[in-house]
Amino acid sequence: MAKGTLLITGGAGYIGSHTVKQLLQRGEKVVVLDNLVFGHREALPLDRVTLVEGDMGNAALVEKIFAEHQPEAVLHFAAFAFVGESVTDPLKYYRNNLAAPLTLLEAMQRHGVKEFIFSSTCATYGNPQFIPMNETHPQDPVNPYGASKHMLERVLKDCDTAWGLKSVFLRYFNASGCDLEGEIGEDHNPETHLIPRILMAATGELESITVFGTDYPTPDGTCIRDYIHVNDLADAHALALEHLRKGGESVAVNLGTGRGFSVREIISTAERVTGKTIPVTYGPRRAGDPPELVADPAKAKALLGWEARHKEPQAHIESAWKWMTGPRKGRYAATS
To answer: Where is the NAD-dependent epimerase/dehydratase domain (predicted)?
Structure first.
């Protein structure tokens, strides 16, 4: 059976663009819908991808895409993802992360498209009640970002009951790293992720990296996180698509390595990779930061055949450093 077209929302963003690259290598036909608020035109090979610039909440545009391209499945990355901003401006997050995708789902229902891969998050769990966290962990998000993702998971479950939509919820832990070839990478404004901020401190773009809290109940007093390489996330999306194409049921899986590393461990690894001393400032804990977040990824391996290949943070940092010191210096054009 010939492969159909894939519609990828947010495909010009960080994780979306890395997944697009992987899917193209697998011979897929891709249409990207991205409003380019946070995405970058230059992150896509426009000779091999159809880019539609616009918003997934625009019903007329979404209908036009479905009528013209007749997608077989939707991979949904598009979302706002700044936790702090979600607390101060919750309606922005509920409109974009919850309300706008309903337009997409209505078009899918009208056109009989019943395969949906959702970029969800470990933030749907809230504060950890046990470590490592598996998919049976209670979902009690502590901020509107996590809540918006959790609510859309519920919507997708209800669509399965009502009209047979099959979804895979991919609950990411801490996405990191860049394309191993250095062609594309992570370029956020503002940049909030730890590894690029550490590397920005290494290049002098930042005066220092601030470590928030050194008195956590962890071996070195700093927060521990499960860092998952963006290429491993891309692999998981491809395998989730295979699962649905084979008639698989809706499922939620964690995407992580199952190993946690502290902020201090990440900084020391970055110093080894870059050969530079990273200037560090120590600050108080940030409200809402749990001491430790680590995935139990066993279900993803059992159901999708997926396992992280890049389990050591050195590989994540090396690929991010390659992007940051490469021709683009870690940045796409300001206009892209």
So the answer is: 7-256
